[in-house]
Amino acid sequence: MRGIGSFKPGQWLAMAGRKSPWGNGNGAGGAGGSGGGSEPPAGDGPAAGDGPGEGGGEGGGDQPGPGPRNPWLKPDDYAGGDRRSANIEDIFRARRKGPSGPGGGGGGGFPGLPPRANGKSWWPVILGGVALVWLFSSTTHQLSPKEQGIVTTFGKYTRTIGSGVSFTLPWPLQQVETRDVTSVTNDVIPLGEGENLVLTSDQNLIDLSYQVRWNIKDLELFTFASTDPQSTVREVAEAAMRLSVAEVPLKAVWDGTGRGQLEANTRRRMQAILDAYRTGVNVIGVDIKKADPPEKVADAFQKVNVAQQLAERDKNNAQAWAQQTLARAEGEAAAFDKVYAEYKLSPQVTRQRMYYETMERVLSSNDKVVVEANGVTPYLPLPELRRRAAEAPQQGGQ
Angle 353-359-363 (CA atoms, 0-180°, nearest 5)? Predict the structure, then answer.
């Protein structure tokens, strides 16, 4: 094994009758012999690394041999007559240089693109296109009919632009911040399912839930005059509602009789406070969604409510009876006035007619019948006969 391992690569190739693919290197004697112009025979001649072969290698070391060259080296790497093995730095250097030297193609074009017709680089064209796109996108602004924009120059307010196409200086000289100013924002107070107890004028508590509808009327004030305008709207709404509820009793809020006036007062107070704060907000309306008693006393409130409803029903019935009685009395008085006017014209006739009407009204419900005729039986059960005559059709129908 030691004898086989002591052979050099050039000796193995000489024994096989082939040249060294690496030329006349210092480490391959057989390759040096071939560099001197003698091809080692394939027979039992002297080894390529023995005396004559080594001498030939030294004599021909100035010029590369005709054999295959190192595939990892370029012709420039053979300058000076010395051929060497390629290392990792040579490989990466060759990749950086590219097929036509540093910078890509022969015309200095963009990597991956063919060179321009005049042989110039693509970089000016590409950079010019990017500059045009940046200039157009940062100076032209298209806003929808619902939007407005705030233009700032180095962070300072300059102007407000409306819907449509507007032009400004390019970024970063000027910036535009757009916002929807016509859409209505709905804020529900309180958030979640918690209670919102409010004190009324008669020292009662009520759980109140309401909604505030608002939008932006001045975008400049809305953006710069307040750090958090949305929170400001909620806080002002709660303060205005508590102040308005404190002026009305519980009944007006609970049964809904005073809700319209309460909502109008709250909206008016909110608008006055927000205008004083210069928030740029327009309050559209306030809607009360729920007005219930506190949860701990809800049963007692329900009983009181039922009792109030019963009292209200009895009161309405009494008022209806009083109105009916009064109308009947007024009708009777008007009829008497008419009769009196007729009585003054003919007292005797009127007196006799009134007598007959009175006797008819009194005797109509009496069971006795008076007959003024001779030869009539003293007693006739006329009422009983009348009653039987009235019951006979009913039994026939059954």
Answer: 150
Which are the contacts of 198, defined by CB distance < 8 A and separation ≥ 6?
Answer: 205, 206, 207, 208, 241, 242, 245, 246
| 55-79 confidence digits (pLDDT tens) | 344 444 444 455 555 565 556 555 5
Angle 189-191-197 (CA atoms, 0-180°, nearest 5)?
60
Q: Looking at residue 320, what is its pLDDT?
A: 95
**Which tokens hold the place of 188?**
């529900």
d(CA 75, CA 23): 14
112 secondary structure, DSSP code: T
Q: Could you say which DSSP state residue 101 is in?
A: B
- CA 336 to chain centroid: 77
**SS3 label, residue 168:** coil
Q: Which candidate, 121, 125, 177, places its Cα nearest to that of 149?
A: 177
- Any idea which of 92-106, 348-362, 374-388 has the lowest mean pLDDT? 92-106
Q: Identify any residues that bridge with 119 across adjacent strands, giving them in sequence order.
A: none
Residue 212 CA from chain centroid, whole number: 18
Q: What are phi and psi of 113, to 5 degrees?
A: -115, 150
DSSP letters for 289-321: EEEE--GGGHHHHHHHHHHHHHHHHHHHHHHHH
Highest mean pLDDT pick, 114-118, 351-355, 364-368: 351-355
Task: Flag whether pLDDT at 26 surpasses 60.
Answer: no
CA distances for 47 relative to 15, 51, 52, 60, 284, angstroms = 8, 9, 9, 18, 108
Report field, pTM of the whole predicted structure over 0.90: no
Among candidates 148, 171, 170, which has minimal Cα distance to 159?
148
User: Quick one: pLDDT at residue 155?
Assistant: 77
C-alpha torsion angle, residues 13, 16, 19, 25 (rounded to 10): 10
- Two structure tokens written together for 265: 């007062």
Extract long-range pairs of 73-82: CB within 8 Å, 24+ residues apart. none
Q: Would you give the DSSP letter of residue 170?
A: P
**Whole-angstrom distance, CA of residue 225 vs CA of residue 276:** 11
pLDDT tens digits for range 276-320: 998 889 999 999 988 888 888 888 888 888 898 899 999 999 999
How is the beta sheet containing 147-153 ordered, strand by strand? Answer: 156-161, 147-153, 174-180
